[in-house]
Structure formats: structure tokens, C-alpha cells
Amino acid sequence: LDLLRPKWEDCPGLTRALLVGYPASSLVWEILGQTSLSWLPQFLFNSSVNSVFRLHVWSLFISCFFTSMLSSGMSFLMGLFEVWMMMTYFPVCEREFGSTAFLLWLFVANAMVCGAFDVIMYVQSFWKGPIAKLVPCNGMWPVILIIMSLRVLAEPNGSSNFWGLAVIPNKWYPLALCGVFCLINMKILWNIVVAVMIGYAYTHFRLGRFMPSPATAGRIEQKLSCCRNGRFNFLGAHWVPASSTAGYGGDAYASASLSDFGRTSGLQLNQNHGASSSAGAAGAGGSSWGWGGGGGGG
């Protein structure tokens, strides 16, 4: 609890809502699975080639909010680790871009992952059969890995401690993480591969141009009284209004800030939590970038 309390207190409103809602939704879906509404979670959140063919396009944007933490003991442990990573990486992103802009960023980033993932599954269906079209892309791991990749690639000439096993140049660190995920699961996790690829391509191809700006988020907030001026409050934390962020005031400036997402977020997080991250990494043998232990997922 002493370790969790400062992290929890550091979380703004959206992050707290995700930290509570993400595992809670898993319980809801498990309960619905035992009722006549067992089809509902798959209908809403199952992003696959088959769902796209059925025009369930909304699943491309919101499938990251679906998890099945209670399906097995390993899924539960990995789900807890997933929540820990959200608690580690999401607060700085939310404060930098504002709650609404960060939520929209999650939607678009997840759509990028799911879109590329579905293309890969469609190609594989030619030799694997129709079963490949049913493989879903769900959960927060892909967007977490995009954020992690952007963070380390913000300093490509640096290096990071890989769980106390080796010091790896930052430019290869996302690939090493991807390899560990695939090795633990004994198969290629294409959603993880796609997330890392997007992390590498984000700055080079200026993918931030496709992300909503804080100025756009601000206009949305003005139409929603619950989010205006940070009025929304969840478990003691306020919604971060777009008007309080550095990118607010012009779409061009905001887009530039978002396209430099990894560099700005990485530097801010390193400045704000450098001491605690270093101490945690030294104690757990983890990465100086906040990846503090073993894990897997997908």
C-alpha cells in the first residue's frame, strides 16, 4: 500500500477512472458471460477481421478497454501488471495533453494497432483459414507499449537496463520488449509487434498529425458541461482541462506537441519521477524507464 498510495495520488481523473473501470469491466463481462447477454462484450469490444467485415468499426477504437483478467490465474497476474503499467505511464500523458485529448489519443492509437493487426490476420487467413479472421485485438498492452516505445526512443542514443540482465541501447529496447513478450507466450504476438512498429514509426512518419489536438479537445469540453474547466471528479481527482495544457491555443502547435509525444512525455516523466524510478529500478533490477519487472501479455 505504501508503494501504491503515491502513485494513486499522482493519477488525474481519467487515469483513475481507467484504473478502476478496466479490471471492474472484466468482472462485469465474466458475469454477463453466464447470462443471455454473453454476446454483448464480443459485440462491443471484439476487434477482428470478422468484426470489421460486419461493420463493427467502433471496436477498432474501444477494444483496448476490454480485458479478461478473470479467465485464468496467469491472466489475472498479467492484468494486475497491466494496471500497474497504466498507473506508471498514463498520468504524465494525461497532464501533458489534458484528459479529453489523451482519451481521444487512446482511441486513435488503438485504431492504428487494430487496423494493422486486422490486415495481418486477413493475410494470414489465406493459409491459416477463416480462424485467423476471428482472432481479436484487445487490451491496453499495445497502447502501453506505444507509450513506452516513444519514451525510450525520445533519447535514441541512450541506453536502458533490461531487467538487470543487460544494458540495451534505447533504439533496440522496444524490440527487446517485443521479443520477451513473444518468448513468454511461445508465439508471435502480432498486436505487440504492431504496437512496437507504430512506436518506431510515430515520429518518423509524424503520426501525431492524425491525433486530436488539445485545442480540438477544448472545443469538445466546452460542449460538455461535466468536463468543462475540469469539473468532472472521479475518486478525488479532477479531469485535466485542455485549456490548462501547453498545447492549447492553436491546432498547429498542439499537433506538433502531440507528434513529439515520446520526447516531451519521456523528459517530463524522467524529471518528475527520476529519483523514484531510479530507486525502484535499483531495488527491482528493472529498467530505468520504469519497466520494473518481468511480465508478458497480449
UniProtKB/TrEMBL annotation:
GO terms for cellular component: membrane. It is a multi-pass membrane protein. Coiled coil: none annotated. It is found in: Membrane. Signal peptide: none annotated. Keywords: Membrane, Transmembrane, Transmembrane helix. It comes from the Eukaryota. The chain crosses the membrane at residues 57-81, 101-123, 135-154, 174-202. This is Derlin. It comes from Zooxanthella nutricula.
